[in-house]
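Quality-control log, excerpt.
Job 1 of 2 completed; input and output follow.
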Amino acid sequence: MEVSMAETVEDSVEASSIAEAKSLGNEDSQCSESVKKVSESTNANAVPKSTTTVAAPKRKIEVKSGKDSGSNESRSTLTRPTVSSASRTSGSVPVTRRSSTGGLPEKQPMSITKRKSKDVGLDAGKQTSSLASEPLRKSLPGTIRGSVASFGAKSAVRRSIPELRSSAPVSPVAKSPRTPTSSDLSKQYSSAKSSLRSSQLSGSSAKSISSPSLDSTGSSSSIRKSIGKVTTIASRSPLLSSGSKSGSTYHDRSSSLLGRKKLGTPDSRDSRLIMLPQVEVKAGDDVRLDLRGHKIRTLKSGGLNLSPNLEFVYLRDNLLSALDGIEILKRVKVLDLSFNDFKGPGFEPLENCKALQQLYLAGNQITSLKSLPELPNLEFLSVAQNKLKSLSMASQPRLQVLAASKNKISTLKGFPYLPALEHLRVEENPILKMPHLEAASILLVGPTLKKFNDRDLTREEIAVAKRYPSHTALCIRGGWDLCRPEQAGDSTFKFLLEQWKEQLPPGYTLKRASVDRPFVEDACCSHFEFVRDTTEETDSVLDLKYHWYIGERTPSNFTAISGACREIYFPKRDEVGRILKVECTPVLGDTEYPSIFAISLPVSPGTGIPKVIKIDVRGELVEGNALKGYAEVAWCGGTPGKGVASWLRRRWNSSPVVIDGAEEEEYQLTLDDVDSCLVYMYTPVTEEGAKGEPQYAITDYVKAAFPSVSNVQITGDAVEGNTIKGVGEYFGGKEGPSTFKWLREDKDTGEFTSVLMGTNEYILKKEDIGQRIAFVYVPVNFEGQEGKSMSAMSQIVKRAPPKVTNVKIIGELKEGSKVTVTGIVTGGTEASSRVQWFKTSSSTLEDENDLEAMSTSKIAKAFRIPLGAVGKYIVAKFTPMTPDGEAGEPAFVISETAVETLPPSLNFMSITGDYSEGGVLTASYGYIGGHEGKSVHNWFLHEVENDSGTLIPELSGHLQYQITKDAIGKIVSFTCIPVRNDDVSGEPRTCIGQERVRPGSPRLLSLQINGTSVEGTTLSVEKIYWGGEEGESVYCWFRTSSNGAHNEISGATSSSYMISVDDIGFFISVSCEPIRCDGARGPIVLSEQVGPIVPGLPTCRSLKFHGSLVEGEHLSFVANYSGGVKGDCLCEWYRVKGSGQKEKLHVGEALDLTIDEVGRCLEFVYTPVRADGLRGSPKTLVSSAIAPGEPQGVELVIPDCSEGQESVPETKYFGGEEGSGKYIWFRTKDKLPESAPVELSNNIENVNICGEILTYTPCLEDVGSYLALYWLPTRSDGKCGKPLVSICQSPVTPALPVVSNVHITKLSSSTYCGEGEYFGGYEGESLFSWFRKYEDGTSVLISGANSKNYEVSDEDYNHRLLFGYTPVRSDSMVGELQLSEPSDIVLPELPRIEMIALTGKAVEGEVLTALEVIPKTETQEIIWGKYKKEVKYQWFFSSETRVFEPLPAHRSCSYRVRFEDIGRSLRCECIVTDVFGRSSEPSFAETSPVLPGVPKMDKLEIEGRGFHTNLYSVRGIYSGGKEGKSRIQWLRSMVGSPDLISIPGETGRMYEANVDDVGYRLVAIYTPVRDDGVEGQPVSASTDPIAVEPDVHKEVKQKLELGSVKFEVLCDKDRAPKRVPGMGSLERRILEVNRKRVKVVKPGSRTSFPTTEIRGAYTPPFHVELFRNDQHRLRIVVDSENEVDLMVQTRHQRDLIVLMIRGLAQRFNSTSLNTLLKIEA
């Protein structure tokens, strides 16, 4: 048993060292040692009573133990702290130890609970030990093993928390002068991993050893019953506690009684819990070495037995100064070297200790940790109580706890990389003076840090840390001094720049080094900005190389990212939370300079919204080629999906238009794309459906392909007289004047002869019969470039049947007109050809079946248009016939326009109906002029027949009008504007009504009674009257009984009626006879009955007092009751005190007034009660004050009198409240006889009046005289009673003269008055003086200040005043000088601001100016002029919570209201400061919420060069809220003319000028519109007159001087709207322009002569038109029937032609173009 128990004790020592490693809260400078508790349960049923005592050297220690109840647990957990009811007790041995972590002592105790597993099959005893302390540092030679008897567990009595807290500490050993009041283990911590490990080990153990639980008070007060005594000796163990080889766990979580939520302390959270690293608990003698306190000086001595197998080594409290020899401990896990003589450096031998987990170096003389190597498994390091100046050391990758309290640490320079650190303690170090030290620690350590100086991290410091730049930690490690967060950006950049300045390229300065905030799969861009010194000259270009690195969650341990060598980097998904670093290497010429860097914030998760980083279009921009769009997408954390692609076409000076069907990445260029830019738009879309912002790329202009033609063929039958047509498929841009040739083949020779050129159509002739015709197509583009020709051959031409061509309809196409059809018949002699007429709604011929016949087939070719053809197109069917009866193919011809009708008009109009109120009037009219459309109908009301009338808007478009009340007495008219179905309007016509509108017969549409059927309420009439203006209608109220009796209520003839008590049980109704204002009467209407009437609530309608309100009178009341039959009403009387409180006096109908009511008011409360007991609302009546009775004096006695002592006579009064009675004091030299006082009111010799108030203070004249008092008793209302007189028994005694209560009174800011109370006879000429007291305490007499009043001077300011009073009696006797207390510091009056006035409006854009209103006093004017120092202003704006927040940058008296102030209120606060440093009370003025300004456009101007070929744009400054859809209109203005000419369709911000603008000023009218639709005043801007572009001007001038010019143009020969555009519709023409006329000539050919198609002089209506959508096209209009559209190759040529023509036609224009061109006519 002894051997077994010895092993247990050794295991306990090992466990105690482990517990020490897990304790951080007991860093006490008095270094007490802890207690070891050992118990073993041998049998669950045995409960032994005996104890075994083990002898120890020199002393015997006994500890009483108590039992506590407990329960068995199946697992070991880290429990919540509990009170002593959950603790266990066992024997303990108090010893003393020193803390190896260096922390501060903690007052909060804790309990450690051990729970045993049920799997062992034993009932574990739960025991608790109390701790006590012993003398400090007691050395023991060794460990003595002893045996301890096992004890059975017994239940202990649970104690309450107050008992524990009030129990006095009782130590079981001798008291020590350094005994702490709480346990040295007041704060222990346990690892959750250790708890789990211990639970598993305890389940397999055969022994049951209890874990210690420490009482919260550090005493044995919680022990109720002694169980056993255990004595043992420990060898300087830091912590001795029970343990087992199966492992023991510690359940603490700061379980002190003061630290729980049950006690309500603020630290009730687990804010002091530190989860320490796990260390293997099981340790035998072969792996553990404990040599604490053995005075060892070196580790190389032979007796230490250091071996590589040791895992737990305890060498604290020795004399070691070097670590030589420690390198043999390759498996050591816990190494305790605390309290030795290490000074460092010299920690290199620890490099071999790779398995080291916990290292204790506290209590040494270490000055540096730089030599401490990197220990890959180190989790706990204590360097407290040393002389460290910094924590610079190697990186410790697994360190979780670093305790460095009580050092000399003053800087964070060289702080190591600690990626796993959770707890950092630096208490009692100079660095604690650093502001935001906790925030700096958060920056250095990173997100793993949970506690700083044994506290949870504060939210404030975490927020402060987030405000620092991302590279702050690197700068701190480099020696940068922490500053405020808002200054850290510039400060850290200057710090890094100072380090880099020697390695930057010469001649360059670094202005920026930063990196964007990184997001997953989003572009993170770096920014390195170098600025070249202008004084340095170099030809080399500075290049920058980049490389990206990825670090951990703090800016350290960076690893290069393969392939990341661009300025931009896309973070990956697995890099979330990690920090990026980008290095920039500047290269100047061939020299590569050292790299600089930038640090990013931690990588944030992507937004999931993709972005397009780069987009472009690839492919040759030539018609027919294929383009492909490429988009580089950053998916930002989303799953890559298929984006949305689209192609748009953008022509010059126009907006892009979507190309239908172009929704793929590839696009084939077409003819429509030539001379246009293409826009490729791409919208990225993830698989989750998130869409990014669309991006686009714009190409250059697409070029046309080389001209070519394919599929050339001849269409049409090869029959004489037919027109055949050569067609082909042209390719190569816009087709120009392609060349067409027709050739005839000679059937004998086979040669081809040209028969026609310039057209692709050919009419077969007789010469062609039997021959073949060839067609040659030479493609030519619009620029004149010619391609390869292609040809086609026709069939042999055949003879033609009869055929008609050139069919035309001749005549005026109007309703009723006569038209004729003509045509040319070929193919034989024409005979009786036949014609048939049709009509159609279509302007083109499509199918004969769609035509509607208007006649049969006839020989006559003339036809009169019927009415049914109006709006239709006329079609003639011409069938040619030969004399032999052969019929050819019929030809159809359609009219160019639809048949017109006559102008719309009205042939008659009338109004019928009843012209009285409510009647219906109907308008009718007759329409002629085609088919009627939506004619305009309006009704008007007229006061007189000839006035313009008032429109009735709601009847617009109606033919009927129901007359309303507003029309009475007025004339009604109807106006119709005839409108044809093609919106052509005719002349309006008006029809006037036959008579004025009459009012309707008066009548009531409804009549009802409103109100409740209760007595006392008021009923009112609600009716609807009709029939003109109502006059005084007649009302009559009726009362109907339950049996139907109907009686009129007398006097009830108004529109309302109050129900009386007579109406109870009856029904009420009312009748009304409507009367019009002109006296006309309508039928009487009777309303429905209401009722029956029920009694109302008992009510007192009036209440007043009856009787006199005088003391002694009998007071009653008079009440007016309503509300059914009156019952026993309640009457209550109250007395109202002066404070408003009420005192109940009596219950009854009357009250007798007593003297107690005099001067007070009475309150009478009357509660009406109906006979059935129902109570109504009480009514209160308050009286005036009760008048008193007659006044009388009962007694008057005068006491003995002395000079200066107030004499107060004794009086007794009766008769109401006493008022200010009349008192007269008499002075007499001799004592009067008893009968004399009655005659005092009369004149008596030697009797003088000396006072007229109740009290009297005798003066000098009264000395030696007798005083008598005359009293006339007076009531408070002034009424007097019978007077009384009393005489004193002895004469007045005298007093010595003195002065008192000398003080200074401040009359104003510049005037002071000295005062004092004189006593001692008649005062003579007393002496007065003034002193000035300085800050040093000295006082100086002020010369000339010898009166009571004193006017301050400038010398007195900032000093104090003293007033001296020397009393002098009239007999020249002088008293002592009395000085007053010093006055307040003399200062002038404080400058005041009476009010603040704001000038200006609280409208956006306005200027608010604060004006101070100075009080209109002379003093304030002097102070403002002489002592005012400055006036400070501060502007505020109201937030959403109506709290005013300052505008820091606005501290002047003026403030311009900004756009962002809209909806806010503004406040200006003003404070004036004087030269003495005083500030006035702030005055302020507030505005109403700021309104948006009127939309306004300032500084509107038009930008452009001033020539007719330039682009012009408007710009200006908008104000007035948020701008909406403002309107812009471009106009022209002739110089010198106010007229403006609108340019249709030009409403954009940009305008491209043309030759129509030459000589005009361009005017842009800008109407600003706010987003809510409010419009501002339109503003305009104009240009100078538009001039001709210089090159054009020069050429026009030359040609005008020549006078005759020819131009080669293209003519669109067929502009009919029904024509389907085909290939080759343009023909070549010659435009001849001379001084007299213009003509268009068709060039001749081999078979034809030139022909003139258009000829015209310059007389009006001749003019030239442009097409804004086509810069190559113009139209020459000679008159309404002669015009031609021409095409030219360039805009330059078009402008030249137009200006040339207009210049020659200048004599017909109001403004000469030659004047604009500066050409002399």
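Job 2 of 2 completed; input and output follow.
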Amino acid sequence: MAAAERRAFAHKINRTVAAEVRKQVSRERSGSPHSSRRSSSSLGVPLTEVIEPLDFEDVLLSRPPDAEPGPLRDLAEFPADDLELLLQPRECRTTEPGIPEDGKLDAQVRAAVEMYTEDWIIAHRRYQHLSAAYSPITTETQRERQKGLTRQVFEQDASGDERSGPEDSDDPRHSSGSPDDTPRSSGASSIFDLRNLAADSLLPSLLERTAPEDVDRRNEASRRQNRPRALLALYPAPDEDEAVERCSRPEPPREHFGQRILVKCLSLKFEIEIEPIFGILALYDVREKKKISENFYFDLNSDSMKGLLRAHGTHPAISTLARSAIFSVTYPSPDIFLVIKLEKVLQQGDISECCEPYMVMKEVDAAKNKEKLEKLRLAAEQFCTRLGRYRMPFAWTAVHLANIVSSAGQPDRDSDSEGERRPAWTDRRRRGPQDRTSSGDDTCSFSGFRPATLTVTNFFKQEAERLSDEDLFKFLADMRRPSSLLRRLRPVTAQLKIDISPAPENPHFCLSPELLHVKPYPDPRGRPTKEILEFPAREVYAPHTSYRNLLYVYPHCLNFSSRQGSVRNLTVRVQYMAGEDPSQALPVIFGKSSCSEFTREAFTPVVYHSKSPEFYEEFKLRLPACVTENHHLLFTFYHVSCQPRPGTALETPVGFTWIPLLQHGRLRTGPFCLPVSVDQLPPSYSVLTPDVALPGMRWVDGHKGVFSVELTAVSSVHPQDPHLDKFFTLVHVLEEGAFPFRLKDTVLSESTVEQELRASLAALRLASPEPLVAFSHHVLDKLVRLVVRPPIIGGQIVNLGRGAFEAMAHVVSLVHRSLEAAQDARGHCPLLAAYVQYAFRLPGTEPSLPSGAPPVAVQPATLARGPGRPASLYLARSKSISSSNPDLAVAPGSVDDEVSRILASKGIDRSHSWVNSAYAPGGSKAVLRRAPPYCGADPRQAIDRSSSRTSSYLEGSSLAPPATQPRPTVQKLLHEELALQWVVSGSTVREAVLQHAWFFFQLMVKSMALHLLLGQRLDTPRKLRFPGRFLDDIAALVGSVGLEVITRVYKDAELAERLNASLAFFLSDLLSLVDRGFIFSLVRAHYKQVATRLQSAPNPALLLTLRMDFTRILCSHEHYVTLNLPCCPLSPPASPSPSVSSTTSQSSTFSSQAPDPKVTSMFELSGPFRQQHFLAGLLLTELALALEPEAEGASLLHKKAISAVHSLLCGHDADPRYAEAAVKARVAELYLPLLSLSRDTLPRLHDFAEGPGQRSRLASMLDSDTEGEGDIGGTINPSVAMAIAGGPLAPGSRASISQGPVAASRSGCPLSAESSRTLLVCVLWVLKNAEPALLQRWAADLALPQLGRLLDLLYLCLAAFEYKGKKAFERINSLTFKKSLDMKARLEEAILGTIGARQEMVRRSRERSPFGNQENVRWRKSVTHWRQTSDRVDKTKDEMEHEALVDGNLATEASLVVLDTLEIIVQTVMLSEARESILGAVLKVVLYSLGSAQSALFLQHGLATQRALVSKFPELLFEEDTELCADLCLRLLRHCGSRVSTIRTHASASLYLLMRQNFEIGNNFARVKMQVTMSLSSLVGTTQSFSEEHLRRSLKTILTYAEEDVGLRDSTFAEQVQDLMFNLHMILTDTVKMKEHQEDPEMLIDLMYRTWRGSTRSWATTRRPPSAWCTLPPWWPSTSPCWRTAATCLWAAFPSRTSHPTCWRSLPSPTTSCHPTRRASVPGSTSRSWGWWGCWSRQQPTSPWVGSTRQ
């Protein structure tokens, strides 16, 4: 371009209108002082202010989805099946449900049965799994998506043995002889060598004359082939620490199990076998002094021994034949023992006498003791016949389980997986926090040991005076001591073989504690394994999930010492009586071993001749479904006559006592000390307790308590907590209307039940945590029912909404506190989350009143009946009434006036406080408000509007006859009540709700979803789905919670973080249910709150971090793309004022007309863009503000904002809905402003290029073509601009990044390498997926400097993703770009042990969390974000291979995306006046890409682009400037020497076309000759990995092209090419020899001279010597003594010294300087100088744009 033209072009660029300057400066001055980019909006709305979004529903109505073509139709609106109702069958472990048979069940049992049998009801969002919250992109998913990648071929990875490959089989043609061996004058040998070489394959279409457009289309089609669809699948997964949107669906509630061990009883053998022996197994915890399992009874007797009891036994049930049991241990401990007790049939004599034969006689002496054995067998047979139903204690022993586990050892680590060594995470989570063992040396696990078979040989005989559990614990503690007293005792010798192993996950033939068949149960005839019920050592917080109603009876001791008569062999008979008649004993007592499954009575073992026996017996009973006041346990005490005497009965009753099981509606449990009656019990005794001394009855020891017994219930029906019992009882009474009712000592009537119910609601907070958690589903269901269906008492509605809401808040808080250790990463209690997800449902219909009930007159809802209620009751009542619909006709002043008064006192303005005024009543976007029924509206809507003002309606009619009238009920909507009660709640309740706001938010969302699904309202327009009053309540609620977040962020940072996330998830969920424009207005209102607080915040970074998390959660919605209205065309700004980008539109390089405002708005954070693409605008605005140089906490905000964008783009890549190119292009339009943001942030991005000053080379180069060198982008200095605008300049004003000087921008916080690389890969994603035509239109509107910065950005992308090579991965194994340099150092510290885990946790919590080290931040894992790094140092070879594979594909794809973008820019500037400058810069980027480490695939396409570019614009290379030509020749020549044949093929083709293009311009290609010759000298001298034999093949290939080029056959071109190739071949041969003879100075100078002689032809026409000879090669010897000879030779060699003044101007004559001075230098240094030989010392500066610079 001529100088005059360039000046004219520069003047055109800088022509600025004064009006435009005023607008630009006024915008800059109106911006916030916090941000220089905050004024970039075409509507004048700064970035710090959220623009009002479009009305989403109206936009969709105006543009139906059918208007979109093909696959884009799915982006226009949510799918019709987005929300669905799922009924998931409840998991039942047993083959039969085990619920009581249908009969007369009371309300409590009926409710329990319904709860444990009904299916889970799930309001399911069908596409929610596609959200980033539920399908996160992790390292594992990335590795899965990376399967099947093609391995890219890189030059640096090509091994040396490739030289002998099939395509490179030529032998090296260089000798080490003297230069005289080859006659250089003729070059015959060199020509012969070159002609005999084999050429590489030729490109078939290279020599064809094709139109440039066809070449471009062919190149583009070739580039598009076999490209990976998902660019981000090649990039590391997003940082999991930043994934605040991550959440998982809770698992359905399941029955709690601890660690389970399987115990199999194999055999029991004594020295003598004379009678049956029965065994009992149980677990005992010595430390807790507690029995932690029920008994397991087993019978290992032989059939002959069992036959001795045939007279007393019925046919045994198969369930009683079990010999193996599964024990569950929630709290494993080294103090747990497996206790084995043995019993035998009662016989005459004490325990010692009965044990004596077993201790004395041996099996080997059987022959000697034959008579004694026969006598013993005969006696045993007699006792079995007579006393077979009674047992006596015999012996016991214990197995220390910790010894079994430790001796069995852990599984081999080499053979078993980690999952086998410990339970899976899901199992641990299902089992809950109680699985965690105690810390320190007491840790113990029963879940992963090897099976062990034990043979227990020593048993200890039982002692009659020491049978209690207290004595047993003393014995067990003594067993652990080395000098145990038990070891000194003479044992009972036996052999008991048992097998102990971890229980399998799903054992076959297993029975539940209720004797139900557990799945799988293949054959009912198989011998079963029993599950043994656990009695945990400590509290277990788990909800009941199945029906269980068991009662355990433990007789402890009996004191009959004062009882007269023969009462010595005492036993206790236990019976469960449904009445007082003996026939009413129910068969509910579980059998033991080898007997019937259930019995009507059971006996304790007999202690011989003891009046005060102790018992260890356990009776297990199955409680009936309905326990009534008549049900009781009857204890009958018998004296058993062991010796048969005439006239003496076998058993004689000597006492009676009982326990009524129900008292005041509660099941009686716990310890009892009962008096025993001597006489038979009188009639009606069961309604009293034994504590009542009935007249005329005799009592043992004067009515004192002589019998100690304990009852323990394991029931999912009876809570066994007084507060819960009272609450359930009152609720069930109200449901059944059974008045009057006795509660303890008071009789409740309809007039007093309300007060008791309110007191009961308030007392729920006093309930014990364990039963409260166990019955949490029941409690929450009842509370919901009280809110939704307030009871009607005496014809009046009792509003309990406020009390129930407060009780719900306290119950949730208690459950949360009890399960604090089991919270997930977001602080959610999994039990409560599972309740909402699965168990919660809207209450069903009410049961009808019994016939004959009086008619019920329904009155308006009241809290008390009577005319004299105080006004305060109106106040309390009005707080509990919903505010959904105002259309119900109510008594004047009774509802609406009170609600308004309450809301006014609370300071709530429903119309304007929290919602945009457009949504207020009467506003332009108002939702449904008061409207007369049936006034032209849809009938369904009219019915909805005519529903109750209090969101209630009445069922049934008070005018119906009593006999047929159903019980009237009032129905409310839970979500409406929750919203209102939350808004009007007091401070105490509000605080409790805020602590667990997520639960109430989720409860409201599910209630709304069920309301829509069950009410068939999904077809209703979104604006009509919910009443306006309810939406006002939602708005007020969102505003108040948002205000809490803002005010608490500096006081309680952890709570503020949780609240912020809960609020964001709530709004995200509402986007699937309600008017989306309304939700956007709530988001905007919340942003306004935060922006107001930011102006006075002491540490804005805290609020900015929360707001960024808020935005990220909102954007994680599964229909995020649809919510941004991607299918609607962007409207240009209505205001005549142009956008910021339009202030530079006068310097648009490529179009004479003004830029298209629509396109400009799409690529900037303009008003229309942020208004239509609301969520994307919020996200990119957060990114823009975080990238500000003056942003607070910049490094943290950089990472969070960029990570949010990266995560979303990863989700789009993985989403199957966006797989098609057209759809993904539309998605990419949502991120087009990212290009401008990244371009403007370029100066502060990490410099991945080597050497300083490389980032803005092209922008500066293009800007230097203009005259305003101090202003980038054609803008004017702010001081001058303000003077032009006519106003003073503010002291703090400054230009924006996109318009101000680069130096000013660099003053901000630079981005880290990790953040910069992630931002660049996001830019590449947009460039890859955006519509090329759209990018072309945008590029056409860019100013020249802006385009320069865009090219700089592309260059930086090439540098950032340059392939490092396999050796780099091996050299720095784990140091990847994913972690910054400081993180690498910390990783090394952790590996070397110089920093502990605790210090690392503290450091990371302070660094990562913006909340600093505040004292009131509670220590939690979710705050510290401690986790082990995934970057291991000891990566395997396969892992490193995989990393190299992925990195190679990423580098290739990134470079191809850059190449695609460069092609778009080239097509854009073809008709531009400044195309030479721009195309020169484009070519520099192409040359840099060709000079960096690239794959063969990219070089194939890159060289094709280079050929097309040179073909279309030859003036770039062949006019005045030769830098580009020199650089290109050097690049091509280097690739001609590649070991990869594909690279050589394309490089040879490019070099040949370059020669042909130069020849066609001037009938010679002297410039190319010269540059190729110089490049060859430089290449051979500076490149270490240069392969001369492969270069020779490329020279042969070029020669072949010249010979086959038909078009130039008539010219001298082929001859010139041949001469050049031969010369290059000779120069190459001699240059290689120069390397070999670098230690021989004379030979070296001779070779240099002869090489010069061979190269004179290349530059003779230009009269310019090669610059390469002005630079010493790096292998030049630094100690050569022949400097004078060398100087003389060189002086003589170049007679035309004046023709190259750069090299020769400073060279003196050798005659005047015979002794050149020489400075010492390091060999190979680039700063050597030898006096007048100094021109040799000046090395070529490295540059990404210039290959060889002449100096």
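Post-run check on job 2. The mean pLDDT is 76.
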